[in-house]
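Entry:
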Amino acid sequence: MNWLLDLTPDEWNAVRLSIRVAVVAMLFSLPPGILIALLLARGKFWGKSVLNGLVHLPLILPPVVTGYLLLLTFGKRGPAGAFLDQYFGVVFSFRWTGAALACGVMAFPLMVRAIRLSIEAVDRRLEAAAGTLGANPLWVFGTITLPLILPGIIAGMILSFAKAMGEFGATITFVSNIPGETQTLPSAIYTFTQVPGGDAGALRLTVISIIIAMTALVASEVLARRVGRTLEVE
């Protein structure tokens, strides 16, 4: 077990950066994830199929393509990147924030899908009953819908986190592989596989990646069940 914890400073940096990137990607994806899931589950508007396709596009596109599109859009010379840099001093390309953006984009479809399925499973009669008692739609969502879809939100968050932890193609294309700045666990493992004698480091980081991902998935299952039992009791 000691060999697993005997990480070099660069390896610890990769672990900490991966967790930081995954958490930031998950948290910033949550509000738009809930909104878009609600639109796809309940909305009736022109272009709904197009929106659904755009949301799920990162799942079927090669990750390198997604990373390249992010570079074209949010790079320093890209339209969004130049605007954010000039007026807000925010830079994504070749920064850890760009890694969080890439991970968030790649994990977004999984979050939206989990939340959307949870919304579609809600009994609309409960919401209608609250509406007949005079509650406005926002109050109905906050007091009826949101608690009922909480297990789906938790599942979506954990899936997003796990996906972000393992993202490689889009990240390395958009922000490169800079130790201490953008080198996440997958990038560090890739680096170890390219140098002589790097097998031990690659194996250590691989085991750590598996442990973190499995812990996240098990935690998601446990939390979802607890929330579900709590709602049943109430």
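DSSP finds eleven helices and no strands in the chain.
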